[in-house]
Amino acid sequence: MPENSNHMTDQPVNVEKIKQILDANNGARIRTWLNICARCGLCAESCFFYLAKDKDPKLSPAYKFKTTLGEMYKKKGNVDREFLEKCYEIVWGECTTCKRCSMYCPFGIDIATMISTARTVCWSQGIFPEGLARTLTNYRKTGNQMGTSEEDFVETCEWMAEEFEDEVKGITIPIDKPGVKYMYTVNPREPVYYPQDLGMAAQIFTVAGEDWTMPSSGWDCTNLPMFAGDRALAGKVVNNMYKKALELGVEKILITECGHAYRSAAFEGPYLAGYADGKPPVEIVHSVQLLYEYLRDGRISIDPDKRIEEPVTYQDPCNVSRNGGLWEEGRKIVEYLAKDFRDMSPNREHNHCCGGGGGFIPMGSEFKSRRMVSGKVKAEQIKATGAKIVITPCHNCFDQITDLNEEYELGVKVASLKELICEEMIIPDHLKPE
Ligand code: SF4
Ligand code: SF4
């Protein structure tokens, strides 16, 4: 298994390995998809890469899978390194595996799955982005993508609980508490760059009277090996989380405001971790679902005087809305928070990817200019709403829209649900600090 990307070298291609991958990963289904594709082109207009670059036919979904995975099957895995280098550009630089195109294909061909399989082939030959390679090394060494030690993580939780004592009386961040309802898992960006996110979550859980814990290990719910094509490591990463939840005997795993983490934990992870029935061993809940339930059931309440007056819009993360089914819950939360909600068009499950998904953000500076070009569709969607605030429950959407804000001079503020809920939530009298 390759430790690091070495796609600039000229090592011989391991054809046997490629054949194994082509046979193992949905081989029969993929062959059928390749055969039934009628080249009708109906999927083309669904792809934001295609739309952002003047409808370049080379960016249509069908062209992308036919010239990569299609060729691999046609040549029975007998491909050379030069071909794989060309695939590298397409499978990582021209597709975020957002799954929008599958909704527009009359045969329901799952193009994202095919691109993901092509990524696995490239990865098996050491051809994958350096930015992802770095995170994979961290996952292997520490179980999380940023290489944070258990000690540092626990200390950050304790620090945040202390910091937020001034906001909510009796706030705690319990670590490894067995038998609770929710084990809360986060994106490492939170403890490393935005530790206040941990404090904000604790604030909401305390007000809601939740029975919860943070795990000292298995707390990273992200899964970048899934986007790198390293299926074995992707299985280990998601299993870290499942195992910790089973060890603690918790009822459910709660996923922070992160899109791909939900896709991994709830939908793709079980297969990657060896659960043949495709079901996670512990129920998975996304924050959007739980935050909506808190508001709906009155476990937390919004101060009507603090509702946002400025126009706001909502960015549907692909893996929360289209691939996670939570588009209405997200909108209902925004209704509680803001007076002037302006939806993007198209929206909900039809919304376009922001251009930061599929591992694009951690792929780093090598891919930044492409991110900005393909993000044109999202920038135009946001601009058309006239919104001043873009709310999104996903770290990658947050980063991508922050970059698009600068690139396209959108003049917006990007915010998470947690952040706005904490700004507007009523702290009950018995939890007000003295
Ligand atoms: S999965 Fe998304 S990015 Fe990839 S080809 Fe389809 S629409 Fe385009
Ligand atoms: S819409 Fe489906 S059948 Fe038509 S070109 Fe695209 S993938 Fe092929």
Describe the protein's architecture and organization.
Strands 2-1-3-4 form a four-stranded parallel beta sheet. Strands 6-5-7-8 form a four-stranded parallel beta sheet, with helices on both faces. Helix 5 packs across helix 7 (111-124) and helix 9 crosses helix 11. It has helices at 15-24, 27-36, 48-52, 61-74, 81-93, 100-104, 111-124, 130-142, 150-163, 189-192, 196-208, 224-228, 231-248, 259-272, 287-296, 327-337, 368-374, 376-385, 395-407, 417-424; strands spanning 182-185, 212-213, 252-255, 283-286, 308-314, 338-341, 389-391, 413-415. It is of the alpha/beta class. The chain has three domains: 15-128, Fumarate Reductase Iron-sulfur Protein, Chain B, domain 2, CATH 1.10.1060; 132-293, no CATH class; 302-424, 3-Layer(aba) Sandwich (Rossmann fold). One iron/sulfur cluster is lined by residues 46-47, 49, 61, 64, 95-101, 111-112, 115, 353.
Summarize the structure in short.
The chain is of the alpha/beta class and 434 residues long.
List the helices and strands and how they pair.
Blueprint lengths: L14 H10 L2 H10 L11 H5 L8 H14 L6 H13 L6 H5 L6 H14 L5 H13 L7 H14 L18 E4 L3 H4 L3 H13 L3 E2 L10 H5 L2 H18 L3 E4 L3 H14 L10 E4 H10 L11 E7 L12 H11 E4 L26 H7 L1 H10 L3 E3 L3 H13 L5 E3 L1 H8 L10
The protein binds iron/sulfur cluster (2 copies).
One iron/sulfur cluster binds next to α4, α6 and α7.
